[in-house]
Design brief:
- The protein is mostly helical.
- The chain has two domains: 74 residues, Serine Threonine Protein Phosphatase 5, Tetratricopeptide repeat, CATH 1.25.40; 114 residues, Tetratricopeptide repeat domain (Serine Threonine Protein Phosphatase 5, Tetratricopeptide repeat), CATH 1.25.40.
- It has eleven helices and no strands.
- The longest helix is centred in the C-terminal third of the chain and has 23 residues.
Amino acid sequence: MIRILFLLFSSLLFAQQKITPQYIDSEITKADNFFKNGKTNECIKANIIILNNSNKIEYSKGIVASCINLATRYFFAGNHSKSLFYLKLAEKERYTQNSISNQITILTLHSYNYMNIGLYKEAINEFEEIITLSDQMTDDKAKIKSKSEAYYNMGLIYRRNNKCDSAALYTDKAIHILQSQKKLNSELKNNLVWFLLESIELKIDEKKNRFC
């Protein structure tokens, strides 16, 4: 009987999945699929497990990916304190420090959280840092996207605070960045449409003296 129990226990130990970077990467893909299929709760649970497993083997990439995913999910759920909590975990990681793209993603999520809770000055500071960091990006499309969206979002903040001149200034900067490009992909084309619409609304508000 003891021998049977020992064999059973041994088989269970060997049956457990060994935690490796490759295994965690595959779990991140599965978690992303949960979100794509509208399974938000499953996505959150999966990323918490990924974070715990990544901490066990000190896998910085897994920690950053799971924290960013959790911060994103909680932001959309309106839980800004949890979103900011996971962003702070992600920003101190080595994998973040070695990636301008990850730094910009974290700064962007910080900014959106700050905007939603009325910390406009803090949000603007984050967007200004994004504009500076984007110049270090080697991917031109990513650079254009990050910088133009940062200017656009700054314009939105100034509009919320009834500062029409500043809102128009930063919205125009966002538009100029995109219009100065020879060719835009579909995402940047859509962004340009939104930026132009925002510019038109600002002009209408100014004529009607709604805010200025």
